[in-house]
Amino acid sequence: MFTEAGEILVVDLDGTLLRSDMLFESFWSAFGRDWRVPFLSLAALTGGRASLKRHLAATSAVEAATLPYDPKVIAFVQEWRASGGRTALVTASDRDFAEAISAHLGIFDEVHGSDGKQNLKGDRKGQFLEERFGAKRFAYMGDAKADLPVWKRAAKAITVNSPAALRQEAERVCESVEHLVTDARSVKPYIKALRPHQWLKNVLVFLPMLVAHQLDSRTFLMSLLAFVCFSLVASSVYVLNDLLDLAADRAHPRKKNRPFASGSIPIAHGTWMAAGLLVLGSLLAIGISPSFLLAMSTYYLLTTAYSLHLKRRIVIDICVLADLYTARIVAGGVATGIPLSVWLLAFSVFFFLSLAAVKRQAELIDSADRGSLKASGRGYHVEDLPIIAMIAVGAGYVSVLVMTLYVNSPAVMQLYAHPKAMWGVCGVLLYWITRTVMVAHRGHMHDDPVVYAAKDRISQMCLLIILVFVVGGAMA
Q1: Domain assignments of the chain as residue spans, ordered by start
Q2: From CA 187, how far away is CA 391, in angstroms rounded?
Q3: Phi and psi dihedrals of 86, rounded to 5?
Q4: Structure-derived torsion over alpha carbons of residues 256, 258, 264, 265, reported in degrees to the nearest 10
Q5: Close Cβ partners of 1 (under 8 Å, ≥ 6 residues apart)
Q6: Which of 306, 440, 312 is nearest to 380 (CA)?
Q7: CATH architecture of 8-180
Q8: Which whole number is the average pLDDT over 401-429?
Q9: What are the strands of the beta sheet with 8-11, ordered from one edge?
Q10: Confidence class of residue 2 from pLDDT cuts 50, 70 and 90?
């Protein structure tokens, strides 16, 4: 390993040693703590990129121990040192971050980074390294086009997961080149980041059409367009939420494997994904109707407020979650022009309040099993479990009560040939809600309750029985 390249191995941080970018890491960490960060960051940027990095380093709370490092790069550095060579971490990221990471890993002899005035990147980094170690007296490990001026001055260039075009450029500017591939590129993490399994919730936009028995092709098409629009915007929100929750996800035994938390997708890509999905969804919403665009805008603002702050406020968080479910039903009514009944709205508010409480109940059970006294990133403590379970059961039972009152209303007499069959729906819902709370209580629910229900065999059977009652009641 220790060869003609010289005795110093200089390693870049972002995208090389780290499967992430500290500029984006610090921005999303700071944004998750203070909604004013985008505006404050623009003000800091007037002093240059180094000034912005210093500002974000001071306002964020990034833990060096939880960052997604590349184990193969770490092994390469350790082997270099074992062969007698020296190592240096030199990065355009803020020096405070570089020093914290170096202290955590313990594999570097010296550390250099941007200092709030000088942005140590590209040609400036190349000049710095040449002045410190001498021309052609160091090997440099990097991954980006900005590293070409550094490789030009290096005795050896080591590329990490670089595209073919960049590898060719490195070979052109440096005589000795080694290519290190530590990750196989795949589209799967990007698909996973969209959380397509969560699109199941968006089926709620079809509910106004089904409840009103308006099954014509136009109504179905408008509901379908609303479903696609909601899926795009919801995925944008999921990406945003993952970026804001990086620290909490990395501290969680399962969520640490999410694409952004694990580093399988660069955070910079996530930033553009969130924006791109939102733009596509907005364009589709405009095509449906101005009223639907307003409904989608309200949903997005509410869910963004939830991600930034409201999810940490007890009681408010589950009320907002219930409203976000109900918003899908409202949007389905707006897209199709079907007026929503008070019965449907009342049922959905209480039913989804129950599911939101079950979700928090499951998180608290999981926290208790891991020995934590509170759910990460939430405002609840393990001692709150009895109250959360009570809310889940109580709200669920009230939703069933609303359903029983609806069964006796004139609206059911008009829509169903055999309205008494709807009593079967009430019985199944009563059983399912009770069982779902029990499943969460025993620690067997690790997903959102809606996603869990889609995978659970008994829940699937309950849905089938409900459909039998509904269809049987509607048939003349």
Answers
A1: 8-180, 187-307+316-324, 341-476
A2: 41
A3: -105, 160
A4: -130
A5: 76, 79, 80, 82, 83, 85
A6: 312
A7: 3-Layer(aba) Sandwich (3.40)
A8: 84
A9: 110-114, 86-94, 8-11, 138-142, 156-160, 176-180
A10: very low
Q: What percent of the chain has pLDDT over 70?
A: 96
CA 344 centroid distance within chain = 31
For domain 187-307+316-324, give the CATH superfamily.
UbiA prenyltransferase (1.10.357.140)
CB neighbours of residue 71 within 10 Å:
10
On whether the CB atoms of residues 375 and 248 are closer than 8 A, the answer is no
Indicate whether this model's pTM tops 0.85. Answer: no
Taking residues 323-346, what's their average pLDDT?
Answer: 91
Other CB atoms within a 10 A radius of the CB of residue 29 amount to 22
Confidence of residue 55 (pLDDT cuts 50, 70, 90): very high
Q: Please report, for residues 161, 210, 407, 416, 471, the alpha-carbon distance to residue 474 in angstroms, rounded to integers and kept in the order given.
A: 60, 11, 13, 4, 5
Torsion of CA 193, 197, 199, 200, to 10 degrees: -170
pLDDT (0 to 100) of residue 3 = 46
pLDDT of residue 372: 60
HEC assignment per residue over the chain: CCCCCCCEEEECCECCCECCCHHHHHHHHHHHHCCCHHHHHHHHHCCCHHHHHHHHHHHCCCCHHHCCECHHHHHHHHHHHHCCCEEEEEEEEEHHHHHHHHHHHCCCCEEEEECCCCCCCCHHHHHHHHHHHCCCCEEEEECCHHHHHHHHHCCEEEEECCCHHHHHHHHHHCCEEEEECCCCCCCHHHHHHCCHHHHHHHHHHHHHHHHCCCCCHHHHHHHHHHHHHHHHHHHHHHHHHHHHCHHHHHCCCCHHHCHHHHCCCCHHHHHHHHHHHHHHHHHHHHHHCHHHHHHHHHHHHHHHHHHHCHHHCCCHHHHHHHHHHHHHHHHHHHHHCCCCCHHHHHHHHHHHHHHHHHHHHHHHHHHHHCCCCECCCCCCEHHHHHHHHHHHHHHHHHHHHHHHHHHCCHHHHHHCCCHHHHHHHHHHHHHHHHHHHHHHHCCCCCCCHHHHHHHCHHHHHHHHHHHHHHHHHHCC
Provide the token pair at 77.
Answer: 């550095």
Residues 6 or more apart whose CB falls under 8 angstroms from that of 34 comprise 40, 59
Rounded to whole angstroms, how far apart are CA atoms 217 and 321? 31
Sequence-ordered list of residues with C-beta below 8 angstroms from that of 62, at least 6 positions apart, any chain? 22, 25, 26, 29, 97, 247
Where residue 84 falls (left for φ over 0; alpha for ψ -120 to 50; beta otherwise) is left
